[in-house]
Amino acid sequence: MSTEVIDVQGAAKSYRTPAGEFPALRGVDLSVAPGEFVAVTGRSGSGKSTLLNLLAGIDRPTSGRIRVAGTEVHTLPESRLSSWRGRNVGMVFQFFQLLPTLTVAENVMLPMDFCATRPPRERRPRAMELLDLVGIADHADKMPSALSGGQQQRAAIARALANDPPVLLADEPTGNLDSATTDVILSMFTARAAAGTAIVMVTHERDLSGWAHRQVHLADGRVVAEAAR
Ligand SMILES: Nc1ncnc2c1ncn2[C@@H]1O[C@H](COP(=O)(O)OP(=O)(O)OP(=O)(O)O)[C@@H](O)[C@H]1O
Asked: Whose CA is nearest to atom 18 of ligand 1?
């Protein structure tokens, strides 16, 4: 039995375009252990987001195997994907993607509401605990638009952790933040990894990859270099 929480073998993904099939990923292998923080780097168009989307089951590979948290994600029927993702994968994006019509606390409660991972009376206290963890409990009842970018990203991290997922996927999570806030967010990821969460962070900023335990560099849909810290 593998101890890896992410195990990708030969993942390939081609997109159909008017000009024919375009191979965005051409046979990627990736293993990530619990508690490991991996940075996926590469130039624009190298396939980073495509890989993350396969890990999250947002997209399906053309060929290859994607095993995440003990599930062969590529074989899950569409009807089970959202609830599987809600329990097993937290996601953090460059533009936060908080729902603008819900308060910050309600945003953090969403994954618990969606997956019914806790009884309703426990959801708000859990959201408050997470908002406290990321340092914005004071803003719980504000609308996301009243928060700074860094505060919105903290809220998005709290939301991503709501169901205690074993895997956290982040796509350019600091792409819209200043360098001091970037350090705060990345130290939160580091602490989360130390607590056992596997983290895969896509970034085109190579100097940020120093925060990770391991760097996987993609070029033209292939892993061309790997480096451990
Ligand atoms: N739905 C799609 N249809 C056709 N081609 C696509 C589609 N999605 C991505 N691609 C192409 O696949 C390649 C990889 O895209 P991907 O978004 O994974 O790259 P990336 O490394 O994340 O880039 P960036 O850093 O700019 O976000 C690119 O050439 C892109 O144009």
From this structure: 47
**How do the residues of the chain divide into helix, strand and coil, expressed in percent and rounded to 5?**
40, 30, 30
Structure pTM? 0.94
Closest-CA residue, ligand 1 atom 3, reads: 15
Does residue 18 sit within a domain?
A: yes
Ligand 1 contact via 41 beta carbon (within 6 Å): no
Could you report the predicted ipTM of this complex, rounded to two decimals? Answer: 0.96
Residue 150 CA to ligand 1 center (angstroms) comes to: 26
Cα separation, 32 vs 17, in Å, equals 32
In order of 65, 74, 93, 148, 173, the CA distances from 154 in angstroms are: 32, 30, 11, 10, 10
Range of the domain at 176: 6-228
Q: Is the CB of 166 under 6 A from ligand 1?
A: no
The verdict on residue 1 lying in a domain is no
Q: Quick check: is 82 in a domain?
A: yes
- pLDDT tens for the chain, 229 residues: list them: 458 999 999 999 999 999 999 999 999 999 999 999 999 999 999 999 999 999 999 999 999 999 999 999 999 999 999 999 999 999 999 989 999 999 999 999 999 999 999 999 999 999 999 999 889 999 999 999 999 999 999 999 999 999 999 999 999 999 988 888 899 889 999 999 999 999 999 998 878 888 999 999 999 999 998 888 7
